Amino acid sequence: MRDRFSETLSFIRIAEARSLSVAARRLGLSLAATSRRLSQLEARLGVPLIRRNSRHLTLTDEGRLFYERAGRALSEMEDAELAVMRSATDAAGTLRVVTTIAFGRRRLGPLLQHYAMLHPDVKVHLETTEQNASIIEGGYDLAICFEPPADSTLTMKRLADNPRVMCAAPSYLDRRGRPQSVADLAMHDQIAIDTGHHKLWRHVKAEDVAPRRTLSTNDGELARIWAIDGAGIVVKTAWDVAEDIEAGRLETILPALPLPSSPIVALYTPAQGDTAKVRNCLRFLADQLRGDRAQPAAAADDRPSVAALGR
Fold first, then answer.
1. Which helix (H) or strand (E) holds 83?
2. CB 248 within 8 A of CB 189
3. Out of the domains of life, which is the source (predicted)?
4. Which H or E element spans position 258?
5. Which of 96, 134, 188, 260 could cysteine-pair with 211, CB 3.0–4.6 Å?
6. pLDDT band at residue 303, thresholds of 50, 70 and 90?
7. For residues 11 and 18, what is the distance between their CA atoms, to the nearest angstrom?
8. Structural domains in the chain plus CATH codes
9. Does pTM top 0.85 for this prediction?
10. pLDDT tens for residues 32-52?
11. CA-based diameter of the chain, in Å?
12. Average pLDDT along the chain
């Protein structure tokens, strides 16, 4: 196959130059080697491609046909190589991103819209999902999720920390009272999210005192709606409820109580991490997300993680 490509390339250069000696110089070959490649190609195809005389070379009908088609193929191959090499240095092409529905609508969607404006050669496609999504099977370049999942062959980059807050609707707090200490939580109802939130409540227990678990769900958005409707106290990430707190739909409880932050991470294959569109997007998102809440960002780390999108 390598000899076949070399023969074809030599013929195209000869056809372009209409001279064996000029083609040989452009190819960096001797005149004899260039002539030998042409003879081998003609022997393999079984037809003469070039007419030779003492002054110049001309293409036969078969030579013109082969030049046109092989020339286009070579040009497309060269364009493909340039495009691939460009992807390592210039942000271009389609960037496919997947994340959770709520985060996609509230935070990531506007950020990626801004990123696309800054990089007109990049076409951004954002998908949101309620289910875990495989980057490889889904053909995504990036998955943006919360909570570092278990290890795998994917690379994980920590983009920012998303602080958590305990909150409830003013109507609920007017009815049940506003907790002044952790012990007061025993008199209240808890809205639990079944994604490891039982671990969160360990941080707010005092002598095994915690809110009574009255409602639970695996849907973080439903938990937020329940809280706004006055069903109880919920622990949510700050970005999830920032607008609700600002609008007065929710009210923070025990703001001085330390709660573990929820890391925002990007998952991608090692190969995708070498492309400019992914590298640039990761830098952009890290800068924007860390600046949003003026939270001290943990040092970004790259390590293996899973092919799943966490909630």
1. helix 61-87
2. no
3. Bacteria
4. none
5. 188
6. very low
7. 10
8. 2-87 (1.10.10.10), 93-160+264-305 (3.40.190.10), 164-252 (3.40.190.10)
9. no
10. 888 888 888 888 888 888 887
11. 105
12. 79
